[in-house]
């Protein structure tokens, strides 16, 4: 896959809901910007948070987005998932279990169609697991591997990994287990690509060959062999797109 494809249009959100807000409400401005000029979106509910049915998950998304003038159809409502992706105005992949999601993306043969459509400019939005699979691999997900996947290779829409729901150690905690930072350091003993720790309420906006951190919080970025770095919204994080392909 070549780098710096000028037509990419992505919104990668840490979580669909923040404390005290409705579904996608905290990301409303960015969602509307992503979908400007579009009237419909294809929802892929394969991650099934809590085991929710595809029908009920899609209904939840439909209820939220229809208030913004966007109609929602679920990919499971089509006989041919590939055809659905190829004809979609935009695609949204929701959160849930990343392993379940990736297995179903491969099983329904939509990995390559999604990659091809995104490269040509189709808007792509992900939350949580849907953000995880936008990266190079799912090796930095927090989810339990409740199903077997044949590969960790994901959609590779960006040349780095993401850790949605990134959490900092709680000050004064007596917890002696691993922190997120520890686990990402372990990842970098075996993998080269950067990892973006995306805190709740934060999101990455990719437009063409530009990338921006959106939301109220900083992101913690990890590079192999270097100390973790904090970047605030508005800081230059362009290096994330300029290497590691």
Explain what you see.
This protein is 23% helix and 19% strand. The chain is built from 7 helices and 11 strands. The chain has helices spanning 28-34, 54-65, 81-87, 98-107, 111-119, 129-132, 180-187, and strands at 9-13, 40-44, 71-74, 91-93, 124-127, 161-164, 195-198, 203-207, 210-214, 219-222, 229-231. It is globular, with a radius of gyration of 17 Å. The protein has a 7-stranded mixed β-sheet. The chain has one domain: Class I glutamine amidotransferase (GATase) domain (Rossmann fold, 3-Layer(aba) Sandwich). The longest helix is centred in the first third of the chain and has 12 residues, at 54-65. The N and C termini lie close together (7 Å). The protein has 245 residues and is α/β, with parallel strands linked by helices. This is Dipeptidase PepE. Belongs to the peptidase S51 family. Keywords: Dipeptidase, Hydrolase, Protease, Serine protease.
Gist?
Its EC number is 3.4.13.21. This protein has 245 residues and is an alpha/beta fold.
